[in-house]
Design brief:
21% strand, Aldehyde_DH_dom (chains A, B), globular, oxidoreductase (chains A, B), Aldehyde Dehydrogenase, Chain A, domain 2, 419 residues, alpha/beta, proline biosynthesis (chains A, B), homodimer, 45% helix, four-stranded parallel beta sheet, Aldehyde Dehydrogenase, Chain A, domain 1
């Protein structure tokens, strides 16, 4: 335990020192490093697969479920995907040093803002080893140092990827300690990482709700977090029904296990009879289990009865809860009560109701006539994302490079003093 | 204790409910409330002075020091200043609902951001009762509800101001519970306020370092904080000496007890002999105690020897530490080691050194050829400030209306789904 503490403190100290160099690194050095890491990953693909094989074998021996083993496995395609992701990050504009809003003040000084890195970012994630490359790339491009703590079941894979990252940093003349992957499965390492206020500026946990809740509770460092996604689509009585059915189908069935999938469908009572039978046929044909309120079940008898618990639930599975609501106010009230401030969408052709929904729904992404599945860094044009924040402080929604930065004020004077 | 807990929970619940109404309030209603509060304060000036008199008498009886009694006292001028401050906030642009960066994506959706209130803001402050009006005004204009917890020595004054705020909110048709001033001196109220995660979105502590450290440590809610201001001026060897002397004089002597006053002066060795004797004469004439390193003391024998402790110290008093440094790197290294990431200024005519200082000094305000005293919401054109943040997450530097808001993503579609 004391060893782990010392180990983490030493990682923290090195990360802090590296962060100062990374903050000054120019765009070319950062991009060179990203491309060099991508190359190293491709050239090491045999090693990566061998090391990953150890993790996969151990996971199977330990009886890890098939889905988790699948997430853990590095195939050739995952490996080339990591390299491709890093090359895409190299192509993004460098956010650091960006100066904005420079304005002259009556005193004669000119005041504005300069974008700067946050410093040291601690990222805690679960089984997917490709997160190691993604997170390293985003932190590097945004001028931050990072400490990555992957799942213990992926230790060999993550260390093999870490070696590629170090090689790339070195090749570009950047400090190898700018990206450090914690090399211990001791859980005490996490406890230390989230309380090293002197060395870590922000924690980004990626994983299940339990992991994130525990980290948020115990961290002494600000956490950019995404708790859960209970996303809604509200089909208004002024909806274009064809759009409504297309969007509600896509929001639920495009992918089930993702945070931006719809979990509850709200339908205006005036159009429920027009919408639900046709839409629910699609769901039932795709094997989606439906749980509805009384009004919905009258229209679609195959539905089970939804419980209070259902409205709160992020299924991450082919299950959908459905409720008929009287009007826009009832829809917003439902989202306010049961939602998770992640992503909610209204389908309507009515201007005033669309504007009200946009303004009044307090979620990180609010949409009109679009599938909730669009709530994603790539879809939004951020280039990549480190996660989706359901917090309100600092970053909200998909967090890309800019979410890993801060802005300081800069003042340009010519000898001005306060009078 | 249990009573205080219930009392605070009930305040929290009401604040949360009010925050939803405030988020929808239009600009006109918010401005009307601000003007009505200003009127109520002016009309109640006799009552305010009477109530304040109770606090002042108690403070004197309790042996509070003269400076604290001074800060506590509401004179006619302080009262008209509060009203004027509220009118100025009414004139500021409404940040809420601002839509920015709307861009079409290849999928056909249009994505951008909408500025929204944070929700419920808890503000904990010490003796100055005028903070009650300022903080209420800023929270109101930014569409937030707030819970204000002033110093126990100002309880009568704060409650009298709170009555004016409620009257103004009521006159404008806004919920009176949008601004609640905690009406108990029980310290348990603070402990409750900073841990009511369900009802409070952010805590802003204003006061001494001890208060802020305690709150940061115990809060379970994000804190926008300003720990201390160890601000530096670095006089480079390419400085215009006249500007350097004017700025270094102003930064230290314009006001002593403020966070943006210079506490340590760094002078390049090549110009120390040209700068220090003349500048130190000004300081000594104004009664500033000087504490220097050996090199400075050789030039100005009246200086005491500075200790390691001095470089870390925010004097908030007519005391200045002075150090001669070899070059820009040494100046930046000193600031990095001893500074508080608040405000630092370089005096130089050299372009490259100015740019390096701006980029490399990691403080909330970094200046060239200007007095550190400009680090202030009014001077920066924010209109007013709730405080100065030395954090990196969310808001950095002077925090005005925008620092009390967040941005959500909005997506405008026309039936788009993800493929």
């Amino acid at each position: 335990m004391e060893d782990v503490r010392q180990y983490m403190q030493s990682i923290g100290k090195q990360a802090r020192a590296a962060s100062r160099l990374m903050a000054q690194a120019d765009t070319n050095a950062k991009n060179s490093a990203l491309l060099a890491i991508a190359d190293a990953i491709l050239h090491s693909s045999a090693t990566l697969i061998t090391e990953n094989g150890k993790d996969v074998a151990a996971a199977k021996a330990n009886g890890l479920d098939a889905a988790s083993v699948d997430r853990l496995t590095l195939a050739e395609k995952t490996i080339s995907g990591m390299a491709e992701g890093l090359r895409q990050i190299a192509q993004l504009a460098d956010p650091i040093g960006e100066i904005s809003d420079m304005k002259y003040r009556p005193s004669g000084i000119q005041v504005g803002k300069m974008r700067v890195p946050l410093g040291v970012i601690g990222i805690i994630y679960e089984s997917r080893p490709n997160v190691t490359a993604d997170a390293a790339g985003l932190c590097l491009k945004s001028g931050n140092a990072c400490i990555l703590r992957g799942g213990s079941e992926a230790l060999h894979s993550n260390q093999a990827i870490a070696a590629c990252v170090r090689a790339g940093l070195k090749a570009a003349g950047l400090p190898e300690t700018a990206v450090q992957v914690v090399n211990t499965t001791d859980r005490a390492a996490v406890g230390e990482l989230i309380t090293m206020t002197a060395y870590v500026d922000v924690i980004v946990p990626r994983g299940g709700k339990e992991l994130i809740e525990r980290i948020s509770k115990e961290a002494r460092i600000p956490v950019i977090k995404h708790l859960h996604g209970v996303c809604h689509v509200y089909i208004d009585d002024d909806a274009d029904i064809a759009k409504a059915i297309r969007i509600a189908d896509n929001a639920k069935t495009h992918r089930y296990g993702v945070c931006n999938a719809m979990e509850t469908l709200l339908v205006n009572a005036n159009v429920a009879a027009k919408v639900l039978p046709e839409l629910c046929k699609i769901y039932l044909d795709k094997g989606v289990e439906l749980r509805g309120d009384d009004a919905s079940r009258k229209l679609v008898p195959q539905m089970k009865a939804a419980t209070e618990e259902d409205w709160h639930t992020e299924y991450l599975a082919p299950i959908l809860s459905i409720r008929v609501v009287a009007d826009l106010d009832a829809a917003i009230a439902h989202i306010d009560t049961y939602g998770s401030q992640h992503t909610d969408s209204i389908v309507t052709e009515n201007y005033t109701k669309a504007m009200r929904f946009l303004r009044e729904v307090d979620s990180s992404s609010v949409m009109v006539n679009a599938s909730t599945r669009f709530a994603d860094g790539f879809e939004y044009g951020l280039g990549a994302e480190i996660g989706i924040s359901t917090d309100k402080i600092h970053a909200r929604g998909p967090v890309g490079l800019e979410g890993l930065t801060s802005q300081k004020y800069i003042v340009l004077g010519n000898g001005q003093i306060r009078v």
